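Many introductory courses stop at the sequence. We go one step further.
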Amino acid sequence: MANATVSIFLDSSYTKKDGTSRFYIRVTLNRKTKKIPLNLFLKPEYYNPKTKKIKEIREVPDAKKNNLYLKDKESEVEQIIIELERRKQSVTFENILSLYSNSEVNGSFIEFAKTRLKEERNRIKQSTYEGLALDIVKLERYQANVTIYEIDENWLEKYRNYLIESLDNKANTIYGNISMIRKYITYAYKKKIIDRNPFHNFSFLKEDGKKEHLTLKELDMLHDYYNQEEFLKIYKKDKRGKTYLTGMKYQETLQHILISCYCGLRLSDLRKLRYKHIENNMIIMEMDKSRRDKEKMLRIPITERLKSVLDLDGDKKPNDKIYKGFVRSSSDINPLLRFIMNEVGIKKRLSFHCTRHTFAVSALTLGMSLETVSDIMGHNDLRTTQIYAKIIDDKRKEEMSKWNRLNNLNNENLTYALAICPNCDNEVLRFEKGVIRIKKLTLHCQSCSTKFSYVVV
C-alpha cells in the first residue's frame, strides 16, 4: 500500500459510565493519523494491546466473534486503500472515509446489493423484493467475489454471454438479471462510490415476446386431469419399502393454475387469496400490483368453472385458504407447471404468468367485452388489454386464410404440393412436385406442435 498503515485499537483514554471504551480503526497516512469509530465497546481490562485482540475468556461473551469483526473491519479499510491505488485515485483520508462510509461491503458488489435491498425491503412490494433477491443469488453463483469496481462494459458482456450460453436464459430473463445490476451500479455512481457508470455505454433490450397461452381445448384437458386426480396416483418407495404420496404437489399446483386461468389472478394475488375475499359470489380484494401506491380493487365474479376448482365447502374462517397447499414462488412453481403440461400432453413451454394470458384470450374468444376483461385483470390502460384482442384477430386471419386453399383445390394445373396439419389444418410444408423423392416425411406443425407422417405423391 501507499505510505499508509491500518490498525485496530481500544481508546481507553475515555470510558463510559459502565466502564467500557470504544474501539477505533487507526489509519496513518504520511505520518498523519485519523480515527474511524466502530460500534463496539469493551472494558479495557479485557483487551490485550500487544495482540490487539479481545481476551477470549469466560467473562467476555462473544469475544471470538468480535475479534473476527475487528479483523474484518481492519481488512476492509486496507482493501479500500488498495482499490484507490488500483484505480489511480489519491489515497487521502477523505477518499478512504467516503468509500468506507458508503460501502459496508468490503468492495463486494454482492454484499453491496444485499445491503441496499435490505434497506428497500419496506418500500417495495414483496414480489419485487423476491425477484431482486433471486437475481442477486444467480449473480453470486456466477462470481461471488466480484467487486463493485470490476463491473464494466466487458464484464457485463461476459455475464450476458454466460446467461445465454450456459443457462440458456431467454431475452426477458436476461433483461431482468442485468436490470438488477444496473439498479445498484447506478446507485453507487450517484453516491460517488464509483467514478463512472458502465451502463452509459452498455445497452440491453427487453423483447416484446409472444404471449403464450392455453387454448380452450387445452384448458379442458387440464380441468379433466384435475378432476380425475391423476397426480394423486404418483407414489414413491424408499429403501425400506415404505410408500409415500409424491404427486400431491402437482395436484395442488394444477389447482392454482386453473384458478388463475379462470379469473386472471396474478401469482402474488393468488398467494394472498383467502375466504374473507369472497363476497356475494365475487372475489373482492386489493390488487398487489397497485400503481404509484394507489389502491386498486379487483372485483371478479365467480363462475361455475371457477367455483369448481375452489375449496369453498365446510366451515370457513376469514383467513382460511380456498385452495389446497401453499402457492409457491415463480422459481418453484414454473418447473412444476412444465412437468404438469408434459404429463397432460400439452407441448408448450409456459410460465405461471401465462395463466393470465390464457384468461384474457379465452374471455375475449368467448365474447366478453374488452373493457370488462381489462377491468377484471386490473389493467390501468385499455391498450394493455388490446394486445390480447390482437391475438384473437391474428387467429381469425389465420383461420380465414384457409379459404385460400379453395383456389388451390380448383387449380387442375397445380405444380406444387401442400402438407396440411391433420390437427389444426395449417399449412406445414409447400414444395414443388417431383422435387422430393422419398415416399414418406415426418413433419412437425409449428402452430399446434403436432407430429405427423405425410405420404409424398
